[in-house]
Automatic annotation (TrEMBL):
Keywords: Cell outer membrane, Ion transport, Iron, Iron transport, Membrane, Receptor, Signal, TonB box, Transmembrane, Transmembrane beta strand, Transport. It is a multi-pass membrane protein. It comes from the Bacteria. This is Outer membrane receptor protein involved in Fe transport. Residues 1-20 form the signal peptide. InterPro entries: Beta-barrel_TonB (IPR000531), Beta-barrel_TonB_sf (IPR036942), Plug_dom (IPR012910), TonB-dep_rcpt-like (IPR039426). GO terms for cellular component: cell outer membrane. PANTHER family: FERRICHROME IRON RECEPTOR-RELATED, TONB-DEPENDENT OUTER MEMBRANE RECEPTOR. The keyword Flavoprotein does not apply. SUPFAM superfamilies: Porins (SSF56935).
Length: 783
């Protein structure tokens, strides 16, 4: 194999001693989280912390210090934190200081300046949270993409589909918010939404947000970080995480600080309808040091840009999104914390965003409107307990309800009765997880727990022909699962860690038609018993360089779905994926320098579940066969001088499907959908390091290669193969930040990864165009 020489070269690199240090240490004045990160990388000694608020503490510059202990002492002096010695490192904890006697005259406590809403409340670079063990990033044995609050692509309030456009590791369909499917590293099953479990699991904090169907389209206001665990995560996250896990971590309520932010913007699009966005964020301590409240509210309008020539309408595909979140945090003391939060969001899309008129990329010809509506409700309660020994208990409970209605114009072209297709879906997901974990400074860590999941998915369908309603067969799936899981990392040597884990799952899926079928049969009651293992290693070759490898499996449950033909249902089986990967990761040792990662992976996906459509546009679900996926991904992050930042990512993949549909098609048409063989992103930005007036400038370039709508000749519809250039500028003046972001600067026209109307897809004249050149002028005010 061509990759073998590269592996041999990496294995031949020498390892540095675990305690290797520089002659003198030098840390610039920065925040405490960043200072500890730099110190850890310069010395090669692990420094971990789970304390909140490190990013809000400013430190003095430390230079010319000969040893680690002296540097730690100077950095932590007067911060309220202290360093505790671990086996091969340090843990940063809050110092317990006896209260001082009350002064004769009370003094008013100075009010701290609030941090901007997009800044993280704690450092995610010191430890990786998404793997549930809080290990240092350099020791994490797998591919990971992490975006901190300030790194989430502007403007604030983007959705996962917008983030997918900024990193080639993620792919997304673009039917519209609340209808898009997000894929990780080429593990894509279908462009269509149906009954199958999602190949990507999305979590909001510690609560599962989705089970089946598309991404909910939650707007990412006030987010601390977005973490993408690449590859199957069956051991820690269970069924559905066959492509990976995306964890959305929100900013928690603070029990000490009062702050507020207002975010607003206006968007202008070439020859299209304008849009706007408005959001407010408030945090206040209800009982100082004990109870805090945080609230977020927003409204977003994405202006339409598709005209309908048949009905004489312009800019038909306007999208309105309204939502909000409310969070309470209680710190009763003794290491306990209780968080309760809720979210609600509504999406209304007036019409489809596709075109079908030759030579006019933004014009469609249809007889009926094709609106979409979705509503999301989320509730979560999480209790946690931290011990000084590093032991942590998490008890997380969540409930997510979703309702969506979509309509398509199923009228025959030309003459004939007007026909409208309607699909109504209701979903209810209830989840519970209890886990206990511990992370030590010497690289040893472990986590163990159990989960309970229940999901109900009800699909109802109807055809309305000239005002006469005709019900079609729909399905109801009820999935329940109970799991025990455990994973542990052991420092076999000072620089080498081995990770072992497994998850045992007992599940059951029951399905039934939503109305009496006309014919055929269905299977009711399918039980699943599985064990999903993990085997991984991490080898620290130098203080900031590590080699890692991983093998892991995952699966998706089967169920009942609409079958090919009108009025029929059929059973589909579970699918399984196995992935092996090897990679190398380098971190920066200070505020400037180069960080990079390289990863090679191979996957075998058997019995693939896919939501498909017939040539008449009717949906159905089937197991389409097996696939082999090979991928190479590379990322770099370079800061040559303070304020100047260059970054880039590139993703290569090759896949081949073997099954009934693929085998009956041309050899070039036996591919997974939505997976371009090449995708890349490059960016260059500059931010002035001054405090009072801080201008910034940036430019990005995204390339998306050619993909297809689906496997086989019928869905071999070309998509992608385009460049998109973006530019941004802004300035922070005190508490006010102004910004100008331009997307699709060159006004490129291309077909994105989506379809428009399944009932006219057979004509093969549909395209889902890029949004024309758009410019957003925004302002953020922090108090």
């Amino acid at each position: 194999m061509a990759w073998a020489p590269a592996f041999a070269l990496l294995l031949a690199l020498p390892s540095s001693p675990a305690r290797a240090q520089r002659t003198t240490l030098s840390i610039p004045a920065t925040t405490l989280d960043q200072a500890l990160l730099m110190l850890s990388r310069q010395t090669g000694v692990e420094i971990i912390s789970t304390e909140a608020g490190l990013s809000r503490v400013r430190t003095v510059a430390v230079s010319g210090v000969p040893d680690l202990a002296t540097a730690l002492s100077r950095l932590l002096a007067g911060t309220g934190y202290k360093a505790e010695r671990a086996s091969h490192g340090y843990r940063i904890v809050r110092a317990r200081i006896a209260p001082a006697p009350a002064p004769s005259r009370p003094k008013q406590r100075p009010k701290p300046a609030p941090a901007p809403a997009t800044e993280p409340a704690e450092s995610d670079e010191i430890v990786v949270e998404a793997n549930k063990q809080r290990v240092p990033l350099l020791r994490y044995p797998g591919s990971l993409t992490m975006l901190r609050g300030s790194e989430i692509p502007a403007p604030s309030g983007n959705s996962l589909s917008d983030i997918a456009a900024s990193t080639p590791i993620l792919q997304s369909t673009l039917l519209g918010p609340g209808r898009n499917k997000v894929f990780i590293r080429g593990v894509a099953d279908s462009s269509f939404n149906g009954s199958t479990q999602s190949p990507t699991s999305v979590y909001f904090d510690d609560v599962q947000l989705n089970y089946s169907g598309p991404d909910a389209g939650l707007r990412l206001y006030d987010m601390r970080s977005v973490e993408v665990l690449e590859g199957p995560q069956g051991t820690l996250y269970g069924s559905g995480a066959i492509g990976g896990v995306i964890r959305l971590t929100s900013n928690p309520a603070s029990v000490t600080d009062t702050s507020a932010s207002m975010i607003g913007g206006a968007t202008a699009t070439d020859h299209s309808e304008p849009g706007f966005d408005l959001a407010g964020i408030v945090n206040m301590p209800v009982i100082r040091d004990r109870l805090g409240l945080r609230a977020v509210a927003y409204r977003v309008r994405d202006g339409g840009y598709i005209d309908d020539a048949k009905r004489g309408l312009h800019n038909t595909n306007r999208i309105d999104t309204v939502g909000g979140r409310l969070a309470l945090r209680l710190d009763p003391g003794n290491g306990w914390r209780v968080e309760a939060s809720g979210a609600i969001q509504s999406i209304d899309m007036r019409d489809g965003q596709y075109s079908d008129v030759a030579g006019k990329p933004l014009v469609r010809y249809s007889r009926l409107a094709q609106p979409f509506h979705s509503a999301l409700w989320l509730g979560r309660v999480v209790a946690s307990k931290d011990w000084d020994s590093g032991l942590r208990l998490i008890i997380a409970n969540g409930i997510v309800a979703q309702h969506s209605v979509e309509q398509f114009d199923a009228s025959p072209r030309g003459s004939g009765p007007t026909t409208q297709y309607r699909a109504d879906r209701n979903k209810l997901l209830v989840s519970h997880e209890t886990r206990l974990s511990r992370s030590l400074g010497n690289g040893n860590s472990w986590v163990a727990g159990f989960t309970l999941v229940s999901d109900r998915d009800i699909l109802s369908r109807a055809l309305e022909i000239s005002a006469t309603d005709r019900s079609l067969i729909g399905v109801t799936n009820v999935s329940r699962a109970a799991s025990l899981f455990g994973e542990a990392s052991f420092a076999v040597f000072d620089d080498i860690s081995l990770t072992l884990g497994a998850r045992a799952t007992m599940g059951r899926n029951d399905g039934e038609p939503s109305s009496t079928p006309r014919g055929g049969s269905f299977t009711k009651g399918r039980s699943t018993h599985r064990v999903d293992p993990t085997l991984a290693f991490s080898w620290r070759l130098a203080p900031t360089l590590a080699l890692f490898g991983r093998f892991q499996t995952s699966y998706r449950t089967g169920g009942l779905a609409v079958a090919a033909g009108t009025g029929r249902v059929a059973d589909y089986l579970s699918d399984v994926i196995q992935v092996g990967e090897i990679g190398i990761r380098k971190l920066r040792a200070g505020p400037t320098g180069l960080a990079f990662s390289l990863d090679l992976s191979t996957a075998h996906w058997s019995n693939i579940q896919a939501d498909l459509i017939t040539q008449r546009g009717q949906p159905y679900t089937a197991n389409i066969g097996d696939a082999r996926i090979r991928a190479i991904e590379a990322n770099f992050d370079w800061v040559p001088v303070s304020g100047l930042h260059a970054g880039g990512s590139i993703f290569f993949t090759a896949n081949r499907v073997i099954g009934p549909i693929a085998n009956a098609s041309k050899r070039d048409n036996r591919r997974l959908p939505e997976t371009p063989p090449l995708a890349a992103v490059a960016s260059l930005s500059y931010s002035a390091p001054t405090r009072r007036f801080a201008p910034r400038f940036g430019v990005t370039a995204n390339y998306v290669g050619r993909s297809v709508l689906g496997t086989g000749d019928f869905l071999d519809i070309s998509q992608g193969r385009y460049w998109v250039i973006g530019a941004s500028a802004g300035a922070r003046i005190g508490r006010i930040e102004l910004s100008l972001d331009v997307d699709n600067l060159l006004n490129a026209a291309a077909n994105r990864f989506a379809f428009g109307n399944p009932f006219t897809l057979v004509v093969r004249d549909q395209a889902t165009p890029l949004r024309p050149r758009s410019a957003r002028l925004g302002m953020t005010v922090n108090w």
